[in-house]
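Supplementary Methods. Inverse-folding protocol.

Structures were first reduced to a discrete structure-token string of length 482. This string, shown here, constituted the complete conditioning input.
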């Protein structure tokens, strides 16, 4: 097995060496067939993402805090410890994924561990119904979940062109919308019908059932998800050649240079690039602004309805967010613009915060939840932008995506403490914190937008002034997507 810094361990693929005598289709037709096949198989990530149904907020509404005797900030710590596991494991997870080059094995394997720990969470807290038992279970759950999102983004980026990637990230990530929406419906059914079944509290059945389903689906995903273009077994030689050449034409450079940097070199490339750290800090503030995600059922509960109605009311805002995400990422890919659409989404979320700060009217506050949840659309455009920025260096990209997301999770840790129960039911101070965080993140991403525009102007000048094409550092026609 190759070692991490073995520069000779990976063979490159020369399109000219692919077998001859295979059926030949017009490139456009073959590309449509390839994308259709990829999209269908990548949709398995959406299913896996959707299975993240269990929200501690759902369990909270049916006695989680009471049964485990949580007091003060202990519930917030139980939430935030999940992200500590995220932070620790994301970079090593994506480095290992880049080295292993088998996303179809690695990502579902993480999901199997995730599902097992989720199921055991209900069981472990049964034998140790305490704060410490819940914290330990949540920490290891975060450890297992950590490689999933950056791994999925890296997998998508390894197949799709820059004008395709944001929509595809939205397609595979809209599972978070489905999870938030239908997870509440799922939880409502279980919390309503499973109380005291086999002597178990209904919230424990949430963990048992979700964990079991996740394990079964993850096993199926191993046979459906693709690996990378050079080693996916179910591609025809013609499709493999097209998949590789598409990426080369899109700014990766020469085909034989696609993967020449090792995982260890990619780590150094990422940590030595200030853009990675700038994106990470900006994402951190963005996630503080989005911290209402993890308290969403609690915010719906401020409308004054019972548990079942509250969970049902959680669904429509997230369905709306998914629809906006599809529209915004599709338009962003079409126009090859990222930052401006991200600003629009953050602006609408800020308007939602202002509405919730200003009134306790039920209708107005429920409308504000729709405006707030659509900020997810801007976040998916943002991840398309981050992926595009590092797209020419796969080893660096793998580490950069994981490092940015890992450090950004500090925002979720902080955000877990932004919604103390004594600030409810108005949560005005919480909304003010979220508003301020979105302002900071929007400003920081604006700085990156200006810098990348400057780089594009510099690349254009270099192309115009170059006497020899070999003098150019960047492929002809390459521009950063801004």
């Amino acid at each position: 097995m190759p070692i991490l810094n073995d520069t000779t361990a990976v063979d490159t693929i020369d399109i000219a060496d692919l077998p001859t005598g295979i059926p030949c289709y017009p490139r456009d037709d073959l590309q449509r067939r390839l994308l259709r096949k990829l999209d269908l198989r990548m949709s398995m990530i959406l299913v896996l993402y959707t299975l993240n149904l269990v929200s501690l907020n759902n369990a909270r509404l049916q006695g989680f805090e009471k049964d485990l005797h949580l007091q003060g900030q202990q519930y917030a710590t139980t939430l935030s410890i999940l992200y500590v596991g995220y932070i620790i494991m994301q970079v090593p997870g994506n480095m290992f994924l880049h080295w292993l080059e088998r996303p179809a094995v690695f990502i579902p394997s993480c999901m199997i561990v995730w599902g097992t720990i989720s199921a055991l969470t209900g069981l472990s807290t049964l034998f140790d119904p305490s704060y410490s038992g819940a914290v330990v279970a949540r920490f290891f759950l975060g450890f297992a979940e950590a490689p999933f999102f950056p791994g999925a983004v890296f997998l998508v980026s390894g197949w799709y062109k820059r004008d395709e990637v944001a929509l595809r990230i939205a397609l595979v990530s809209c599972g978070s919308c489905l999870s938030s929406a239908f997870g509440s419906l799922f939880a409502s059914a279980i919390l309503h019908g499973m109380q005291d079944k086999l002597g178990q509290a209904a919230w424990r059945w949430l963990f048992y059932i979700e964990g079991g389903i996740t394990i079964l689906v993850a096993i199926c995903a191993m046979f459906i998800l693709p690996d990378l273009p050079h080693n996916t077994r179910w591609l025809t030689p013609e499709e493999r050649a097209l998949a590789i050449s598409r990426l080369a034409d899109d700014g990766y450079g020469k085909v034989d240079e696609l993967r020449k940097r090792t995982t260890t070199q990619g780590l150094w490339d990422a940590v030595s690039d200030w853009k990675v750290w700038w994106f990470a800090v900006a994402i951190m503030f963005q996630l503080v602004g989005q911290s209402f995600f993890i308290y969403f059922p609690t915010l719906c509960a401020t409308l004054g309805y019972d548990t079942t109605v509250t969970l049902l009311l959680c669904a429509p805002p997230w369905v709306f967010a998914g629809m906006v995400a599809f529209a915004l990422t599709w338009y962003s890919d079409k126009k090859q613009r990222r930052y401006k659409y991200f600003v629009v989404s953050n602006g609408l979320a800020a308007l939602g915060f202002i509405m919730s700060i200003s009134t306790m009217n039920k209708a107005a506050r429920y409308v504000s939840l729709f405006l707030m949840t659509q900020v997810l659309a801007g976040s998916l455009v943002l991840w398309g932008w981050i992926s595009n920025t590092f797209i020419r260096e796969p080893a660096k990209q793998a580490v950069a995506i994981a490092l940015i997301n890992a450090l950004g999770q500090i925002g979720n840790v902080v955000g877990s403490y932004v919604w103390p129960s004594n600030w409810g039911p108005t949560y005005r101070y919480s909304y003010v914190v979220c508003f301020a965080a979105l302002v900071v993140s929007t400003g920081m991403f604006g700085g990156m937008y200006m810098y990348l525009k400057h780089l594009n102007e510099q690349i254009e000048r270099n192309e115009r002034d170059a006497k020899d094409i070999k003098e150019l550092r960047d492929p002809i026609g390459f521009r950063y997507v801004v």
